[in-house]
Each structure stands twice: as structure tokens, then as C-alpha cells.
Amino acid sequence: MMKSSSSRIAAVLTLCSGLVLSTGCVKKSEYEALQAQYNDALAKQGELTQTVETQDAEINALKSDFDALAEIFAEEIANQELQLEQLVDGIEVEIPSDVMYKSGAAAPTVGSDGLEYAKRLADFLADTDYFVSVVGHTDNQKMSRALAKKYPSNWELAGARAAGAARFLVDNAVDPTHVVASSRGEYDPAASNDTPEGRAQNRRIQIILRSLP
Questions:
Q1: Cβ 97 vs Cβ 200: under 8 Å
Q2: Which pTM was predicted?
Q3: In a 10 Å sphere around its CB, with 0-12 CB exposed, 13-18 middle and 19+ buried, how is residue 110 labelled?
Q4: DSSP assignment of 71-125, as one string?
Q5: H/E stretch holding 134
Q6: Of residues 206, 201, 208, 192, the one with CA closest to residue 98
Q7: Hey, which end of the chain has fewer CB within 10 Å, N or C?
Q8: What is the number of structural domains in the chain?
Q9: Checking phi first, is residue 80 left (phi over 0); if not, alpha (psi -120 to 50) or beta?
């Protein structure tokens, strides 16, 4: 894209100089038209350069924040207690539901490892400017009768858990206007639901950070 724009600019400049050299002089209207093309080409080149520089700065800032989170959660990542992934346009933090919630509970367990992870993430977010999307996921197991009275399906349970995690972030100084909670229920599994290990992977809280526009 940069090369193509530069080629077009070079063509305009060549046209301008060629006409002047070949004719010695041009009509004022023709000169003004060529000058306008030249100025427009320069302006577009400047806009393109600025856009590329802005994108490079955003990518570098995102990489720097990813590295900072990788350091904050180095032990948990090494022990596979938490997952961290750099996305094209953001950062994803994934916390297993089992380390934050008791079975069937929607409110985070006070003193749990999951809440401690969320607190560290909230402390990090307090010094940044991200839009935070908290997504709840479950396995595909049917709800118990007692639990189904409050949460008709895994969809509602996952949504309640996402809301609980989002509220915890907000209660720990994350801007509430930059936070949204949602549910994927059992419909976006990370692993097979055929084994206990796979179901455990599917029960998770996904926290996606994206730069504000």
C-alpha cells in the first residue's frame, strides 16, 4: 500500500516536471491544476505516513502491555493456571472458572485464586486505557434441579459468572464505562466435553482487552 501510493506520487511529480521541461512554459490554469495535483499527492503521502506510524505505535504499545502481563502472571502461566494470548487487536486473559467459583455458584469465591488473579489484572488495567469484554463459558452438562430454578440453562449461569467477574473489576477501580459482560454458555468449547479434563477447560472466564478507539 505504501509502495503503491509512493509510485502514484512519483508519477504525478514526473508528469509535472516533464510538462515544464518539454514546453518551457504552461498556461496558468494548467500550472495551477498540476500544482493542485502535486499538493494533493503530498498531502496523501503525509496522511499515509502518519497512519502507518500510528499503527506501529499501537502495535508496539500492545506488545509492551502483553509482555507486562506475561511477567505479572509468569508463575500462573508456567503452571497452566491461567492463559494469556496476544490477539491481532488486543490481549486475551483466560481464567478457569473452577479457581474462581464454587460448583454452581455465580458469585466469585472470596479468597479464591481466581479473585487474586482478577485483582492483579484490575491493578494493571487501572493504568491503561482498554475496553474490557468479560465472557462466561461453561461445559455442556445439564443443570441440577436446584440450580436450574435460578439459572434455567448454562447460558444464564455463564452470564451471571461473567457479570460477577466484571463487577469485581469495576469494584477494583476499572472504569465501568469500559467494561461489558456477556455469555457464550456451552456453545464455544475450548476442548471436548467427553472427558472431565475437557469439561474443566471449557468452564472458564475469558477477559479480552482491546484498545479504545
A1: no
A2: 0.74
A3: exposed
A4: HHTHHHHHTTSSEEEE-SSEEEEEEEGGGTS-TT--SPPTT-HHHHHHHHHHHHH
A5: strand 130-137
A6: 201
A7: C
A8: 2
A9: left
Q: Output Rg (C-alpha) for the chain, integer angstroms.
A: 27
- Residue 194: half-sphere exposure toward Cβ, Cα within 13 Å: 1
d(CA 20, CA 79) in angstroms, rounded, equals 71
- Tell me, yes or no, whether 172 and 143 share the same domain: yes
- Mean pLDDT in consecutive groups of 10 residues from the start of the chain, 213 residues: 51 51 58 75 70 72 95 96 94 96 88 96 93 97 88 94 96 96 97 96 97 84
Reported as type and span, the H/E element at residue 195 is none
Domain that holds residue 186: 73-211
Judge whether 176 lies within some domain.
yes
What cell numbers appear for 213 in the block?
478507539
